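Homework help board

Subject: predicted structure for assignment chain

Our instructor gave us this sequence and asked us to write out the predicted structure in token form, then describe one feature. I got the tokens but I'm not sure how to describe them. Can anyone check?
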Amino acid sequence: MGLSFSADDDDQKMGDDPRGAPEDAERSPRKRARPDFDEDGAASLAKLEALADEIARVDMSQEKAATELLTQLLCKIDAVDTFGDPRLRAYRKKLIRRVEALDPS
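My token output:
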């Protein structure tokens, strides 16, 4: 079963940071200054960052369990409302691609 997920987002090249800042391997996204998101956008960003952490912790040694977990993560990522913010949409799309890249099948 191949994981495939269609994102309705525009393709943007922004690095790992949904705020549009360049990637910086020495600094965690959580240590960077928060962008000018409203309360809803900040909550969505926090959800996406938590999901990014979950993706990083997926144990790929158990293929069947990993596939199920990745499918669940795709559903969680899709459920995060971006409120039309292109930075959040690009970050959500990047997370979807990251999950798809981990798919063992």
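Reply (TA_rk): Your tokens look well-formed. For the description, you could write something like this. The radius of gyration is 14 Å. That's the kind of observation they're looking for.
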